[in-house]
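User: Fold this; tokens only.

Assistant: Input:
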Amino acid sequence: QAGQQHVECCNRWHLLRASEARNSSLFPAAQRELDLAFNRLGQFDTEDDAHRDANQTADKLRREVEEAYLSLVPHLEHFSADSPLVLLLEGISEAELENLPSDASPFVRIHQLSRHCDVPIDANARVAASIRFFQTKGRETYMSWYKRSWRYRDLILRVLAAEGLPKDLLYLAMIESGFNPKAYSRAHAAGMWQFIESTGRLEGLGRTHWIDERRDPLKSTRAAARHLKRLYAKFGDWRLAIAAYNGGPNRVRRAIKKQSTRDYWKLELPRETRNYVPLFMAATIVSKAPELFGFTGLQRDSPLAFERVELPDPLSLTSAAKCARTTRATLRQLNPELRRGTTPPQRNLRKYDLRVPVG
């Protein structure tokens, strides 16, 4: 009994210190105090009927600590791997979530779902704002991107796995182009992974009068995987590597040197790059469980499927479509790297692989 009174006294002290820290905007300190309180509460045996009064006191304290922690959630970016509050957020009910302050809900969702991600996801105001963008102004856009993602999902995941990269890098293609192989930007970046010509050439993507391999889903995904692997090797942090994918490694390197920090969230970067990483994190989180963010009835495109035909000589797509009993538009869709209405002439006895519908 004396031990339980001691634990109760310590918990009251941790709650008081957490409240003081929160009021002073010292949020990590408040988090540490609440973690200590939770760990002490674990010393109670709440299944022991012989200590009913003590157990009721422990339950009351536990609710107070949980309420204090949930009010703190909007101000926290990370939980430690062994934080007991991870389990609290995993188990929170829909009713409890609805009773939280409106600004807390997206942060709870981020913390809940980030455990299922293999890239770092930070719970902060910029990521929460990006989630709200997808839920409001960008709602139709997200739904369209999500639908198209299923066409290329298997292809991209196979390439990422082959390169030993996190599978959630899939969602970079969502932010880059909405999974559109024909996307073209004002900066003259092309394809699903939005390579500019020089970077594409660096990663082995050719561009001639006949073809632009930046537009090929498979070739550009392999190039993007190689490029991301290089960037991660340079920076050792996926936030910085992803920022460098968008803004260029030299720009990120200069920002790190100028601000003397490797914390992405503290770097002074162009607005597009500042928005890029939180948008990627938001897209990743929302795509883990769209229904939790109000997206219902989402559609999915059929996975990309094709066979290859080796062509020793150039052939017009009109003739190829007749031979394959398909349409010119279908061949265009399966072969987006083609810039002309014909396959390219091949040198050194090489043959061109034309993609055609299965069967």
